[in-house]
Write a structure and sequence with these properties.
This protein is of the alpha+beta class. It has helices at 2-22, 25-31, 36-60, 73-84, 86-104, 115-187, 191-213, 223-231, 253-273, 320-332, 354-357; strands at residues 221-222, 242-245, 250-251, 282-290, 298-306, 336-340, 347-353. The relative contact order is 0.06.
């Protein structure tokens, strides 16, 4: 029992000492640069400490034996260095050097460089340089410890943020998967149709996560990249059948998955009933930022098909799995859609708040 108590006592003492040190002006200055007024005040306090040391030595002089000219100046240098910093300590050491030489080393009231005076002052310089060097090393060690502590805290905060982001993203992915599975089961005509639909839609989600995983630490997915990866299975990317146009727009993790599923469904619908069901059909995707009256800014994504068979609304996005999935996914992002079916080809316009697309966009 004695050892744990001694260890606990030692830890308490260490903690108290650390708390005392970090509140001293010299150690506070290493954490954050002091103001000009604070620096000037520290030098005034240092001069006051020197004045106290000099007055104390003059008062003690009648009672002191010869050979103790620095008895009050050594503590003054150490206290000033620890409390206010090495530079202030150097100032006090410099003033103490001449004060002790002039007042307390024979011949008195003179700075005559006799052998005895030079020897005495050499001893003084050795001691104060050693003291100030030790103080400098202590402060350097404290600075290194503070930087290491700050770095460890930063890394811990980053891990916490990453863990929360991973947890949030996994919840969103499983929620999206649950919705896709439920809707696929409801609208599948056969087990084979269910399996094929699930494979395609889960593959779309998988490609969106691969897109996110391939990003660097400070990189974000762009809307154009999301469109390209979503439509890649339909053989449109890099051909004249696909036209993309719009400003560079960053997209957050959850929005990447939502848009990937929506665009995949639009592509699947076009391949079954629309422009992608014929060799000469084309798809155009245009997006732009829009200010909506009494609402927050939104991004408008226009999907336009041309060159395919005339669309029929019941077979398009107005009914069935695609329509239901589109509505539910947009609802999770506070978005909406408008679908039209002119004879030239299906037209679907998506509206999503910029904050849902990427919380960093103002």
């Amino acid at each position: 029992m004695a050892k744990p108590r001694r260890l606990q006592t030692a830890l308490v003492k260490t903690s108290c000492m650390h708390g005392l040190l970090i509140n001293l002006p010299a150690f506070r200055a290493m954490r954050s640069p002091p103001s000009g007024a604070a620096v000037a005040l520290s030098y005034l306090y240092s001069l006051a400490i020197f004045a106290i040391a000099l007055v104390s030595r003059l008062w003690l002089d009648p009672y002191m034996l010869a050979g103790f000219p620095y008895v009050t100046f050594f503590p003054a240098v150490v206290i000033t260095g620890f409390v206010f910093g090495v530079r202030q300590g150097i100032l006090v050491a410099f003033l103490s050097f001449f004060a002790s030489w002039y007042y307390f080393i024979p011949p008195y009231h003179s700075l005559e460089p006799t052998f005895g005076a030079l020897l005495a002052m050499s001893l003084y310089l050795f001691v104060v340089i050693t003291d100030l060097l030790l103080i400098f090393l202590v402060m350097k060690a404290y600075r290194a410890e503070s930087e290491a502590r700050a770095e460890n805290q930063r890394m811990a905060d980053e891990r916490e943020v990453m863990a929360r982001e991973l947890d949030h993203r996994l919840k969103n992915i499983f929620a999206a998967m649950n919705a896709v599975i439920n809707l696929s089961v409801k609208h599948a005509s056969s087990p084979e149709d269910l399996a094929k639909g699930l494979r395609e839609r889960l593959s779309a989600m998988g490609r969106s996560n691969l897109l996110l995983r391939g990003l660097g630490e400070d990189e974000e997915a762009t809307l154009e990249a999301v469109i390209v990866q979503a439509l890649e299975p339909f053989g449109l990317v890099g051909t004249a059948r696909l036209s993309l146009e719009g400003p560079k727009t960053a997209v957050s993790g959850q929005a990447v998955i939502i848009l990937s599923l929506i665009l995949h469904e639009l592509g699947t619908n076009a391949a079954k009933y629309g422009a992608l069901s014929v060799p000469d059909g084309t798809v155009s995707v245009r997006w732009s930022w829009e200010d909506q009256q009494n609402e927050e800014p939104a991004i408008r994504i226009a999907w336009t098909e041309r060159g395919g068979p005339p669309p029929a609304a019941p077979q398009g996005m107005n009914q069935g799995f695609g329509s239901t999935l589109l509505t539910r996914l947009l609802a999770t992002a506070q978005g909406r859609s408008v679908s039209e079916f002119p004879s030239e080809g299906a037209e679907v316009t998506l509206y999503l708040p910029l904050s849902s697309l990427n919380p960093g966009i103002k």
